[in-house]
Amino acid sequence: MFMMSVCVCVYECMYTKLGYAGNTEPQFIVPSCIAIKESAKVGDQAQRRMMKGVDDLDFFIGDEAIDKPNYATKWPIRHGIVEDWDLMERFMEQVIFKYLRAEPEDHYFLLTEPPLNTPENREYTAEIMFESFNVPGLYIAVQAVLALAASWTSRQVGERTLTGSVIDSGDGVTHVIPVAEGYVIGSCIKHIPIAGRDITYFTQQLLREREVGIPPEQSLETAKAVKERFSYVCPDLVKEFSKYDTDGSKWIKQYTGINAISKKEFTIDVGYERFLGPEIFFHPEFANPDFTQPISEVVDEVIQNCPIDVRRPLYKNVVLSGGSTMFRDFGRRLQRDLKRTVDARLKLSEELSGGKLKVSAYGMVGCRNEKCVFCCRSPQSRLLDTYDGFLLILSHSKQPKALQSVWCECVTACN
């Protein structure tokens, strides 16, 4: 059976990445939001039923949804998990027909899921794809495994492996996921309550405390722009403060925006906010007093909880995935702090053994590519083009109790 190119859809909290197999980058990156009409419950039941049918067709997604003032903007995905499946189905409908312009019956689909995704969510996803869109085949991949596969592009053939530690940090959630030979070690996954949205809020708070003259209704938008344009990770917090105090003109940047009401320009100086925002990854107590463990210690704890025979490759191959890992020098700072933690423990072990145990160094490799989850779909999606059996999660969802097999059935490539 001839099938057209595989459709790849990466649904995340803030943005959705869309494209076809064979491309090196997503064809579309749209905000994961939907604008709908929220009408009051007035009139008789028949009138409300008729209005509801009209409102179901009156919605917008992506950038169009943000620009609709008379509509309620909703975000169906929170912390990596779909919270409103009705809105999500309408969002997926627009994604397939308006952006990809694809006939779902003619394409296989490759979707991604977050770590620790529940079987029920996987079943709902498969039910929508098979029942509503009648797709011929579906493969749901774990984002961490795809991120590891994406890191192959920068390595020699002999160094390519599906064993490593993936730090996946997006807008709403951060996870540290250990992967051994392509399989996620689910019992060792750690969740960090610090992500891109928290950095934006923290930057917004710092700007408000300085009272720099930002329009109140644009403070969040300004903080996000400052974070994306100027933020970086510093090697030493005290030295960084000293640099700004001694030679501020060299390090302080200026941000220029336009007041949405008066249409006049406003300019603010961006100083300490440049490095204090991303610093909450390494000093989370700045923004969240209830969580004080730096990300380097979380990574070390995750690897130490894994089986001893995979710890060395997990230390050696640490892959960064997600937009919140794109800050300049984030990988260097994480590598340094993680190495210090490991060296201190190994040195203590050497002292306790009386010098019989010698310390061996660990290497660390980082993949700083926010689209890496999408990029790696090329080899996997080409497999879907070749083998009908590889992608078959269930042949037809109308079989009795078929959805119960979605999360446990994995059909390998067949002859």
UniProtKB/TrEMBL annotation:
Taxonomically, the superkingdom here is Eukaryota
Matching SMART domains: ACTIN (SM00268)
Alphabetized, the UniProt keywords read: Actin-binding, ATP-binding, Cytoplasm, Cytoskeleton, Nucleotide-binding
Quick one: a GO cellular component term?
cytoskeleton
Compartments reported by the entry = Cytoplasm, Cytoskeleton
**Is Acyltransferase among this UniProt entry's keywords?**
no
Q: Which GO terms describe its molecular function?
A: actin binding; ATP binding
Q: Cite the InterPro entries for this sequence.
A: Actin, Actin/actin-like_CS, ATPase_NBD
Q: What is its main location?
A: cytoplasm
Query: Which PROSITE patterns does the UniProt record give?
Result: ACTINS_ACT_LIKE
Q: Which family does it belong to?
A: Belongs to the actin family. ARP3 subfamily.
Protein name listed in UniProt: Actin related protein 3
The organism's lineage? Eukaryota, Metazoa, Chordata, Craniata, Vertebrata
